[in-house]
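The data are quoted verbatim here:
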Amino acid sequence: MLLKYLIIINIINFIMFGIDKVKAKKNKWRIPESTLLGLSLIGGSLGGIMAMTSFRHKTKKKKFTIGMPILLLINIATIIYGLFNYGKDLFL
C-alpha cells in the first residue's frame, strides 16, 4: 500500500513541477511553492528532485536546493521508521 502511495505521490509532484515550469515560461498563474513543498513533504520529494533536475526548475532557490534533499531524508527516515515498527506489512 505504501509503495503504491509513494509511486503515485512522486508522479504527481513530478507533473506539478513540470506544469509550474511551463506556466512560468508563459507568465501564467503559477502553482504555489507551498504546494510543491507540501507534496514533497508528504512523500513526493524524490519526484520533486527528479523534476528539478529534468526541467531545471527551482534550481536557484535555496528553499528548494536545500529543502528538497532535507525533505527526501525526512521521507527516507519516515519509511525506515515505519519498516522497523510495522515491518513489511507497511508496504502491502
